[in-house]
Write the structure tokens for this entry.
Amino acid sequence: MSAAPVTDAFDVIVEAVEPLTSHVSAFRLRAPDGHALPGFAAGAHIRVQVGEDGDDWRA
């Protein structure tokens, strides 16, 4: 199953990773230019492209 196209994607830098359990980690992200990232609601999920070809997405 492929993910729907993303039209509002943007680059981020992973500033820190904190392992919470053996299968869960918290990631601190920041914008490359230092500006604020878009807002989000508590408990919100984001889709993250982890492959360079654009086909590997995680939520």
Observations:
- Residues 1-35 form one domain.
- The first strand starts at residue 13 and ends at 19.
- The two ends are 14 Å apart (CA to CA).
